[in-house]
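Entry 14. Structure prediction run on the chain below.
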Amino acid sequence: MLKAGGDALVGIYSSGFYSYTRPGAENAKFVEAFGKTVNGKMAPSFLAASSYDGMELIAKTLAKTKGDASGPVFMAALKGYSNTSPRGTVAI
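Output returned:
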């Protein structure tokens, strides 16, 4: 949005839960990797960050369960989940 709106957006505040301008190492890595997938044509949106977080949760939980995705096993493995993401700490 900042690239599209340019100077017209200076001074505007957002209550969104993700911005590609968020400081931090995890977000910087995410923004760089995302940019490579789209040849630098766009910055990641809150949808991209949320999707990344969801897939990270699934991948880490499947690693913990050794691939068992059955409901009770998977849900039990989610308890105590915590991960540093582009949006900050995500915890269950």
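Residues 46-64 form the longest helix (19 residues).
Filed with the rest of this week's runs.
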